[in-house]
What we know:
- The protein folds into two domains: 2-51 and 368-419, Urease, subunit C, domain 1, CATH 2.30.40.10; 55-359, TIM Barrel (Alpha-Beta Barrel).
- The protein has twelve helices and 18 strands.
- The protein has helices spanning 74-84, 102-112, 137-143, 158-168, 182-185, 194-199, 207-223, 235-246, 283-294, 310-313, 330-334, 344-359; strands at 2-10, 21-27, 30-35, 43-45, 51-54, 56-61, 86-91, 118-123, 145-148, 174-177, 190-191, 203-204, 226-229, 251-256, 300-302, 374-384, 403-413, 416-419.
- Strand 17 (403-413) and strand 18 form a beta hairpin.
- Helix 7 packs parallel to helix 8 (235-246).
Amino acid sequence: MIIRIDNATILDSHSSFHNQKKNLIIEDGIIKNISDNQEKADTVIQGNNLMVSPGWVDMRVTIGDPGLEHKEDIKSISTAAAFGGFTEILCMPGTKPAIHTKDVIGYIKGKAREELVDIHLAACVTHDRLGKDMTEMIDLHHAGALAFTDGDKPIWHTDILLKSLQYLQTFDGLLIDHAEELTLTHSGQMNEGINSTRLGLKGIPKLSEDIIVERNLNILSYSGGRIHFAHISSPQSIEKIRKAKQAGLKVTCDIAAYNLVLDDSLLHTFDTGYKVNPPLRDREDVNYFWRALEEGVIDVIVSDHVPLDEESKNTEFDLAEFGMIGIETVFPILLLHEHNKLKMDVLLEKLCYNPRKILKLPVPVVKEGELANLTIFDPSHRWTYHAKDVKSKSKNSPFIGNEFTGKVIAVFNKGKFKVN
Length: 420
């Protein structure tokens, strides 16, 4: 099979073709030719403003397999990821059973082997993510776990946090933590502020994140190691991370795409689609997040994809579960923000290079002779995200029905390709 990509701007700072418009020939999964020539091909991919980059990586994805396959299984998450432009994803350990044994890792990796998308796994720090007993992280590392986290649960036990950071240093392992002081967020429904007061909903204060970030950084300074803060959402926490980086600590962080676009004023309709954790913050915070992103304090953008069934969302606001699906719409929703001045190369740093650097994954390059691991996208393509377009098994997205500008056109990986 020969595929030709016509007149595409190559965006890859590691490639000699960076920022050049070229035609690419992909044959049997290999980039055979990059030139101005239009060679014969079985399939031609065209567009008004095509861009091609190394494949994107999503560092925060929840799956349901094993145990919760009705929400999301291996095949559906691979299809959804490809639709969103991601060729590699890191899955959180909140399955049933949780990813805390070599058997569960082997099961998921076995089922994922034939999929177009590379499905990497983060294993539990503690058994069943209960925060009490540490897992055998060295064994899980050898079985294929790329990072260690309790997913949407914080590592609340400070001694376990300390011992985990020390333990992980034996193989330079990565600890990912969801920063939340649970006693401050109990029964919380949305961001604490003017809007939560108006709506009469119990707020989730940014202080709950700030306290854990401060604690974790103090422990990191004491113990050494590497820590990554997931879906950060507090300006004060980000400033603490900025100072920690300047002090030489090995700390990184990501932010959910929805926190870069949406704010808590949207909750006035009590639409449970906007109920997420961390919650949507206020508009001033959103503008701050963009500045921190451009300045490099925030390293990665993630989807924070959380598939939920109808019963979990179609209920009273205070009873609804937290989370939205998002892996299919990361790129177009980032283009929605009115202050989006982000250059494409900065955007790709957050979606392509930094995730691989943090996870110690090889970085694909757009050059002849390389195995094609590519994302093809058009930032000017207008389209509507209809319910029938949703690839996830779950439909808990507030963006269904939205008209977007910016679409992923195709992805290539592992000798396979998918055109959307």
